[in-house]
UniProtKB/TrEMBL annotation:
<dbReference type="Pfam" id="PF13561">
    <property type="entry name" value="adh_short_C2"/>
</dbReference>
<dbReference type="InterPro" id="IPR036291">
    <property type="entry name" value="NAD(P)-bd_dom_sf"/>
</dbReference>
<dbReference type="InterPro" id="IPR002347">
    <property type="entry name" value="SDR_fam"/>
</dbReference>
<dbReference type="InterPro" id="IPR020904">
    <property type="entry name" value="Sc_DH/Rdtase_CS"/>
</dbReference>
<dbReference type="GO" id="GO:0016491">
    <property type="term" value="F:oxidoreductase activity"/>
</dbReference>
<protein>
    <submittedName>
        <fullName>Dehydrogenase/reductase</fullName>
    </submittedName>
</protein>
<comment type="similarity">
    <text>Belongs to the short-chain dehydrogenases/reductases (SDR) family.</text>
</comment>
<keyword id="KW-0560">Oxidoreductase</keyword>
Length: 244
């Protein structure tokens, strides 16, 4: 049977590219979305026209722990197995210390850290059964903070440690790794210092969503002796992190 991947936040942007890449590599895919229903349905239609019955849709609000647990249950019911969990969904926006609220904590910590943990916890048995893997989408700012983004950076730093810790706890059956993107797609809300960030990369350019998706595919399919690692796909951005 074709392996099955659940990719959170995968109706659009980098998540959709990850789904397309894994699907093209022969995997069945579960497309999770929160509010992007039209984009999710269009993506599933595209993939199912290419290979009938190979893509399913699941909706869930990752800020709600009960909804996350329900998502895990539904993901297992979709195809009867799970081989890969990609924790891609993420909230990102500034939270200056003077104005950060409890709602900001909920949105940033839950989507970036708590939901990936609950999904990993809920799906660990199924992933062990398949000798599967977990891949977390981290961030270069998990190591060096982005100005006025403390809650986001805290959450991604926690996700990085979760990656390493679960690699020990879930091995040898399940491999757990991370991909840490640099400048790939700018936030839809905009980012003022785009030129400075690009200039600070060793390659002096932005990457593409395909760069992240191909790293995910490699870790999932071809990196059988790799676990507990976070692969920086950032054009050398993490070498300096200037222009932050």
């Amino acid at each position: 049977m074709e392996p099955v991947a659940l990719v959170t936040g995968s109706a659009r942007r980098i998540g959709a590219t990850i789904v397309r890449t894994l699907h093209a590599a022969g995997m069945r895919v579960i497309i999770h979305y929160r509010g992007s229903q039209q984009e999710a349905e269009a993506l599933a239609l595209e993939l199912n026209q290419s290979r009938p019955g190979s893509a399913r849709l699941l909706q869930a609000d990752l800020d709600n722990p009960d909804a996350v647990r329900k998502l895990a249950t539904q993901a297992l019911e979709a195809f009867g197995q799970l081989d890969l969990l990609v924790n891609n969904a993420s909230s990102f926006y500034p939270t200056p210390i003077e104005s950060a609220s409890d709602d900001d904590w909920t949105r940033l910590i839950h989507s970036n850290l708590r939901a990936p943990y609950i999904l990993s916890q809920s799906l660990a048995t199924a992933l062990r059964r398949q000798q599967g893997s977990i891949i977390n989408i981290v961030d270069v700012y998990a190591e060096k903070p982005l100005f006025q983004h403390t809650l986001y950076c805290m959450a991604k730093a926690g996700l990085a440690m979760m990656t390493k810790s679960l690699a020990r706890e879930l091995g040898p059956e399940v491999r757990v790794n991370g991909v840490s993107p640099g400048p790939i797609l700018w936030p839809e809300s905009g980012q003022m210092n785009q030129d400075a960030i690009t200039d600070a990369t060793a390659l002096k350019r932005c990457g593409s969503p395909e760069d992240i998706a191909n790293a995910v595919k490699w870790l999932a399919r071809d990196a059988g002796f790799v676990t507990g690692q976070i692969l920086a796909v950032d054009g050398g951005r993490s070498l300096t992190l200037q222009g932050s």
